[in-house]
User: Fold these one by one.
Assistant:
Number 1:
Amino acid sequence: MFSFIKKKLGWGQPEKADPADKATAPEASPAPAPAAPSPAAAPASASAFGLASAPSPVAWVPQAQDDTQAKPTDRRSWLDRLKSGLRKTGSSIAQVFTGTRIDDALYEELEAALLMADAGVAATEHLLADLKQRVKDTKATDPAAVKALLADGIAELLKPLEQSLQIGQHTPTVIMVAGVNGAGKTTTIGKLTRHLSDHGAQVLLAAADTFRAAAREQLAVWADRNRVQIVSQEGGDPAAVTFDAVTAGKARGCDVVIADTAGRLATQIHLMDELKKVKRVIGKAMDSAPHEVLLVVDGNTGQNALTQVKAFDDALGLTGLVVTKLDGTAKGGVLAAIALWSRQRGTPVPVYFIGVGEGLEDLQTFNAREFARALLE
């Protein structure tokens, strides 16, 4: 799930704090540091979230593992929920391949099914052209074989989006999280915090959604549940809260600072400008920060999800995505549209995680091959 880089013994050893930092750092709600896992439990916990075990207690650079090889029973259970969430899409595409002939009628039906799956015109045309070339190259005549070739094409298109979230290259690693109202942003932050804490990271949360009391309260609940610190301010300036949080994170030697920002529509220019301000102020609090700018996208919004990604990327320069609520009416094809746009962008915007429910275990790393198979079943 994460790729960690540890340069010292243990996580988040604090450096000598600048007196100025101590002066400006706000009083955060303290909480006990998360307990380190026992030696017997550590390997299982690490592999559960795609981390390699440490060969040395002094210095190590673990690489993300294939989550399908860790706790296969749990992963299969989660994949079943993903398939169930995408069943409406999968069944409509799978029906295209129930015949016995590979002809123009099949391709026309497949085009309609992909469009209905929210793949969009450009991605649909790309996948159809790619599939026809694969059929020609392999001389496939069986519809089942053509369906497998389509899965290969989708997986290849989505593969650049399959990357690990990098934690530990900076102390703290500052993550700014954005998204429209109702996308599941604050819940996603809570789940990420839990996973990070379970791996020994010292996390500090910034409740920068200062306009909505419920958002601050929800984030405070997650902070209490995960036993991490939180910087919060009622009715304050979001940029000021994030500045205080990053300053506090530096002074306290935190490993990760996660800033929850106010939900907003991409069409609200003045609110998007405020997000830009938050990002600039984070940069003033710490050079090179934020190190990650994540957008949480509701998988049920179809092609509107691509519109959101483009708008937030123009405003903030996104470094990654989290796609949530794939257990609802989500059609899933929009990921193909995002992947094609990402390819044209030049630098991929990876999908770090996808979610299929409210449970902690329902947020998992994105795997292109798994998703392609789930989409066609």
Number 2:
Amino acid sequence: MQVLRSVGGRSRKQLAGDLAMSASKLTRLSSNLLAHGLIEECPSSEPVTPGRPAVPLRISPDAGYAVGAMLHRGLMEVALVDYAGGVIAHSSQPFDDPDPRVFAARVTESMHAMAIENRLLGRRLLGVGIGVPGSSLSPEGNRRWTVDSLGAWRGIDLKTLFEEHIGHRIWIENDANTAALAEYYVGGLMRRCSTAVVILLGHGIGAGIIVEGRILRGAMASAGEIGCLYPNNRPRPSTLDLLMTLREAGCEIHSLVDFEAVVAGYEDVVDAWVRRAASQIAPIINWGLAWIDPGEFVISSPLPNRILRALVEHIDFGAMHIGDHVSGVPIISVSTLEGAAATIGAALLPIHATAVA
């Protein structure tokens, strides 16, 4: 299953070679997975003939689907993904209620409406993942020290609360970790490297770390909590910090809704923030190289990609201390998921749980 997720469709012969097993054993394993509907033969319009090439196998998108939900400042996002990791649907809507029960009700309403719209009723729902900004207060990560705007979420058992109000199995994970999952599965990281760091500029700043295909969670499920390196009472490279900087300059902005239209005329403010944020993120990149040795860094955020690209362009590699094991400057890319990474990754949590079990 992991090979098929990593490289796409493969013939039985190729899979047997990849996994160093006999053809007969591979046939038994694949027959079992086919019977359970977890994999499928790649559809083809060609007739079956003796000379036809072997039919590749792939992960079956119809094996089930999962839901992900995430809160940004003034905005709620919900995403549906299929078992193969394909994004079925993604929606966003204004939302600014701090009560987690109200959030649960809105998520339930949205996921049902999206399931009906996409003809998913009767299909297997694998579960609901929720990305939460804030460090963990327990080893399993279900209680979290959430950001101030989600103070009503702080310290409570979110898994139990959401399972009671949504009615499905729930996964709770830090939003930087969910963004990392999305980049790994949907953004193509798993095809480029097995170890990577995703830096999320959201409510605060956090890092999701993927090591050999698994999330590095730490003893208290708080690995990657780099936000603690930036005191809350000082400027920090986060989405909320940019919004505050714009407001201090006179811009009437309170959320990411219609961001581009609202910030028109404040380009100099945004440019100055980008330059400052780049200088703050550069040490994180340098420390990440030393501690993790990732194949790639990804910058993810609900901010427009043009801002993230400008940020990467202003990182000063010349000031870094790069070890001899790194040939050239580190690879730093900008997410291609247009700000939806944390939500899509939350939807991937139930699927990822089956992949690493």
Number 3:
Amino acid sequence: MDVNLILQMIMAAVLAAIIYTIIGIAPGTDETATIAPVILALVLMGIQPIVVLTFFMSAIVANKLTDSVPVAVAGVPGGVMAAPMVEHAVTLKKYGKPDVSIRKMASGSVIGTFVAVPVSLLLANALIPLSDVIKEYADPLFFIGAVILALMSKNRWIALVSIIPFAILIQSLRHLYWGLGTVPEDTNVFVSFFLGITIGPVILTLFELLNNDKRDRLERFGLKSIVLRKRKKTKEFPNPFKILTKSEIGTSALASFIGSITFIMSPVGMTSLLGELFSSRIKDPVKKASRAISSMDALTNATYIAGTLIPLIALGIPLSPVAIGPGNALFNAPPVFNLDHNLHHILSTADFIWATIIGAVVALGMTYFVVVKYSQEICAFVFKWVPHEAILGLFFGLVLLLSYMDGGWLNIGGVFLIGLVSGFLHRLGIHYGVQFMVLYAAPWLISKIAGF
């Protein structure tokens, strides 16, 4: 690895840390919708794979560090993964400790990163001898994953029932394109369908705004006032091992370890489950909330790192909700990457280690310090000047462009259809992970059903 390449990796990590520090703090932005299209664009631009991976690792660490800030300051989650922390962050805010909430969550993220990186690399290399067996059964494993995640969804029975109809919709559109000659028969339209799922809630909301009756019934709001409590600035570099108590460090590390080895499970489900489990016996509300949010934030970072690295290094197929979601373009981004030719096949173990360490260290070094020291100033700026609608609008435009590139004008209509159904399913409480697993399992599942 030459010096020029290392400099490119550092620059990519710095750029990702800056971008996703801002995006993470913007309220209501979803991790998959904001990270996946950018990674896909970088891959399609021909950026070196190791540089793309470095950018991704820095992005997820920075995003997971910052999406907890609006939770602590205003009780508004920056992203889906921060939603389980709202109740505990509001408790600390009620007791006048939003600064404690920010410091505990950010420090938990640091612990999660420290634990997840070595555990992920070790577990990934341990699974390599089993990779051929796992890949041989990849299609049924995707279906089993969809079933498992459905059972962990908010409305499990609706999620289970939706699996086959959603698979039929996906394969029906593909066969329509093949029949009309929109795409060659040996080409599976995938990327744009994937992006249609990620942007589904936005598409559904935009369609609802075209309904006059529904639009007229919407509640109108004026300018929203958010009061930020002033706190003392920290001059020295904050030490997460001094901010967290010994018990909080222990539960954060344990949660990170469990989250890393259960990388195939739903990150949101595991975050809620373990966060509540580790704090359930604590009576003092401040200590209980502190224990819960530090453990939860550690777990979110760990699940994102492990959910990307383990499938990428050991398997080469996206066999986790994180890999299928934000990290999907690292596995499958035609015509550059596919399941037989992606980062798994291109990069060596040393490349994965270097990309992970550079991305994680740069993001931690920049974002952790900034979050702990300047979180209120950044939050005030983002709340005032960076509406999340503008960010989502940018990604929505990118989705339309990539949909046209994938299958022409007809595919834009197909992506709208996928988005409408996906947005409706998401509103019913069906997790993104279920829908992504179905997207991968659809060809195998429909062929099996048709063969009966």
